[in-house]
Write a structure and sequence with these properties.
Blueprint (H helix, E strand, L loop, with lengths): L3 E9 L3 E6 L2 E6 L2 H6 L6 E11 L2 E7 L2 H10 L7 H10 L2 H9 L3 H4 L7 H20 L7 H15 L4 H8 L13 H11 L4
Parallel strand pairs: 3-5
Antiparallel strand pairs: 1-2, 1-4, 2-3, 4-5
Helix pairs in contact: 2-3, 4-6, 6-8, 7-9, 8-9
């Protein structure tokens, strides 16, 4: 619903920022590292956002980059990881560090994140390592066309019922597809399906 918000910083606390967008104040939950990166009160900023609607709560969560947003949205798909725990993870480690920790299957370090125990850490690794590894192997930048295309292709393949391991295998060869890392989503999916023997 909200891809991003651009407005002036009206205030902030330890877990959120209030953005004045056209006279409307939006409270946006953010990781502490992202909050620290914001400018001073009154400055105009652009924050990527994810809207979460639950039984008794409607909340906006904000990110300084699309990659941070993507990792947050991946984390909350894991059983036992809600928005607050995902923000806690992004507060404990920056995006690059957390991605590498998951790929390295470092249960001990993930378990140091407040709200995450050993079993949840193992689930995070099991469910996310393959997809994150595929994106890293394909050289996805922090933001931009290649990152977006790979992400969308990965999501589409997972939606077709392929496992994370299968998606990893398929997208690792994306640089060999026509157009390489600059391929569009359709090209990446076609290439992956051929590798998976589904096309």
């Amino acid at each position: 619903m909200f891809a991003y918000l651009r407005g002036r910083i009206a205030g902030r606390d330890t877990s959120s920022v209030v953005l004045d967008v056209g006279g409307v104040g939006y409270r946006v939950g953010m990781a502490t590292q992202s909050l620290a990166a914001l400018s001073e009160k009154g400055s105009e900023v652009t924050v990527f956002t994810s809207l979460m609607i639950r039984e008794n709560e409607v909340a906006l969560y904000g990110f300084m980059s699309e990659r941070e947003q993507h990792l947050f949205e991946r984390l909350i798909t894991v059983s036992g990881v809600g928005p607050k725990v995902a923000l806690s993870a992004l507060s404990s480690f920056n995006v690059e560090a957390l991605t590498q920790i998951i790929i390295a299957e470092d249960v001990t370090r993930i378990s140091t994140i407040p709200g995450i125990g050993k079993k949840t850490a193992q689930r995070i690794i099991l469910e996310l390592r393959g997809v994150l590894d595929a994106l890293e192997a394909a050289g996805a930048p922090d933001a931009g066309g290649a990152s977006s295309a790979l992400r969308q292709a990965s999501d589409a393949l997972l939606g077709m019922g392929f496992t994370s391991a299968e998606v990893t295998l398929a997208l690792k060869g994306s640089d060999d597809a026509e157009g390489g890392a600059d391929s569009d989503v359709a090209t990446l999916i076609r290439h992956a399906l051929k590798k998976l023997g589904a096309a």
